[in-house]
Amino acid sequence: MSKFVSFLTLGLFFVSMLSGLVVVFAYHPSAAYESVQKMSFLIPNGAFFRKLHYFSSELFFLLLLGHIAFELAKKRVKIADKSWIYSIVGFGVVVVLLFSGFVLKGDLSANGAAEVAFNLIKDTPVLNSILPLFRDNTVFYYKFFIWHILFLPLLLSFAIYRHIEALHVKVEYFSIALGLSILALMTLDIPLDINPTQKVATLLSPWFFQGAENLLLKSYTPLEVNLILFSPFVLLFSYIYTKQKLLIKALLVLWLIFYTYVSVFGA
In terms of Cα–Cα distance, which of 208, 191, 171, 169 is closest to 55? Predict the structure, then answer.
């Protein structure tokens, strides 16, 4: 089962990357919302490839979480296991990729999520120094675009390659990944695009970011929220350097329960 999840995860990575190559030709960061709407409603097959990119990316992230869970269950991670380190780096990169992809759709929800992220970075010591890497005062989406289509995919490809010492997938796993992505786009809807000029009572952020927004609404400081967000990565990194592996697993489960709760019900 673990091997199947691993190869399927890699297959979804390739579906996401290839569909993204198609989507990028219809996207313009200087007219983000307009180009996304044109892709969705005017360009032939544009909506199909947009949804394919979205659902393959979401499935890739979920399968990656499953892959990490299987690796933890196998109890075979050793001290200074570089393969494990690269898998956690890849995990972090995927989170940023999904978030930047959400922002790039350029609607009201995207703008709101981006501003929350900017404030989390700006109001946290040390992190505030990296804000210029993401915020562009001329074209709002430009740096998100560059990170999303260039630097982050390259970093993720490198992390995957160092994790498995290869960057190819068997045709059968790619076919299954493609089939699952198409099934998802045929049965599920992508988040609704909200015109940036429209006024609404509530906005939907990326599902994995809703917990952070709920914590901020309950008066948690940006520093506290960032500590909570970075906790699973710190625990996963420390896993190979401690003998208290059961403790690390227990803390990860507790974090997951806590963050799921605040995401669904609020803090």
Answer: 191
The span from the CA of 33 to the CA of 19, in Å, is 19
pTM of the model: 0.94
Q: How far apart (Å, rounded) are the C-alpha atoms in residues 76 and 97? A: 29
Phi-psi region of 203 (alpha: psi -120 to 50; beta: other; left: phi over 0): beta
Do residues 108 and 196 touch, judged by C-beta distance below 8 A?
yes
Give dist(CA 119, CA 141) in Å, integer. Answer: 16
In DSSP notation, 67-135 reads: HHHHHHHHT---TT-HHHHHHHHHHHHHHHHHHHHHHTT-SHHHHHHHHHHHHHHHTSTTGGGGGGGT-
CA distance 12 to 177: 5
The total number of residues shown for the chain amounts to 267
Which residues lie below 8 Å from residue 134, measured CB to CB, with a gap of 6+? 117, 118, 121, 143, 144, 147
Centroid of chain to Cα 48: 20
Q: Where are the domains of the chain?
A: 2-192
Task: Please enumerate in sequence order all residues whose Cβ is within 8 A of that of 29, keeping only pairs 6 or more positions apart, or say none.
Answer: 104, 139, 140, 141, 142, 144, 145
Q: Which class is domain 2-192?
A: mainly alpha
pLDDT tens digit string along 103-144? 999 999 999 999 999 999 999 998 999 999 999 989 999 999
Sign of CA dihedral 146, 147, 152, 153: negative
Euclidean distance between CA atoms 237 and 262, whole angstroms: 24
